Structures are given as C-alpha cells and as structure tokens.
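Lab notebook, bench 4. The sequencing result for the construct came back, and we need a structural model before the next group meeting so we can plan mutations. Quick request posted to the team channel:

Model the 3D structure of this chain.
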Amino acid sequence: MKERIIQHAGEEIGRYGFRKFTIDGIAEAMGISKKTVYKFFKGKREIVSAVVDDYIKSERAATIEAFQDRKSKSWLDRLNAVFFLYSEYKIPLWLLGELQRFFPEEWAKVEEFRRFKKELVYSLLEQGAKTGEINSCLHPDVITSVLDKSLDNLLDLNFLQKHEMTAHQLVEQVRDIFVFGILARTGGGA
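Done. Here's the predicted structure in token form:
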C-alpha cells in the first residue's frame, strides 16, 4: 500500500506541484480514505521525501546497471548510457524549481545523486583513457574538469530557463560535444 501511495503521490505532484498536491487528492485517486494515507505518512513533507527517495532509488539502479553492463555494451555505449540517463530528468523545470526553493533538504538528495552520477562518468572516462578510447592528447583531468563545469549547468534552473532548454536538451548537447567535438562534419577530411 505504501508503494502505491508513493506512486499516486508522484502523479499528483506531477499535476499540481510539490506544494499544491493534496492528501485528499491522493486518497481520492486511490479510492481510499485520508486516514489510510496517514497510517503510512505523517504529512505532505514525508510524502514528498518518499517520492524523491523513490525517484532517486530508481534512477540509481538504472545508472548502476548501465555502468556495469560490459557484456552487451562497448565502453562508449556505457558512457553514453550513464551520461544519457541524466535525460530522465523529464520533470518540468517549474517543478524542479519548486523542489529546490521549498524543499531544500530534498533538493540536497538530488544534488548528492548528481555527484554519484558524475563519479561514474569520471570512472568511465578514466577507463577510456587507459584503453586508448579517448584521444591521448587530452589530459583526463582537463576532460573531467570541463565535464564537471558543463554538468553543473544541468540542473541550474536559471541557465536552462534563460536558454529555453530542458535538462534533456542540455545533456544531449554536452554529450555531443564530448563525443563528436564542435567542428561541423563535412564530406572531406580534416
């Protein structure tokens, strides 16, 4: 029952936001009483925390699976998969902004998850440098520093809003810069 409440709470939050969803709305959508919800959660803050925890748990599992999949994926495929899982932030910007502004303790969990993902990406970059899959002229520390600064913009809501980009679009562009470079592709050589 608790997992179902979390699932329905996530749906309600997606519709109304972290501040405007109601326990009444969750109970009504599930066809249960508010009292049943309160058996599992003390209030809205606890529900928000559970929804954020559930989301991060799911994302962490998917990220680890992509990172460890050496049998069916090449190094580049694994880097792309771990990197591109950032695109799962299909949460609307206004909702992320609300979480950041009104639930800083939950936002801290999102930030910690970002650090975890960065560490896995850096680990894959180190592996690529060791196996010669990354240009040997590029120092891995420079790559990771540039990547770090780029990813810092990933959830910078002001940056995304200013440039009218989604987190998904930003990740695609950062990934493409790292994988393909910035030079236009032409039919001829370099």
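The two ends are 60 Å apart (CA to CA).
Will bring this to the meeting.
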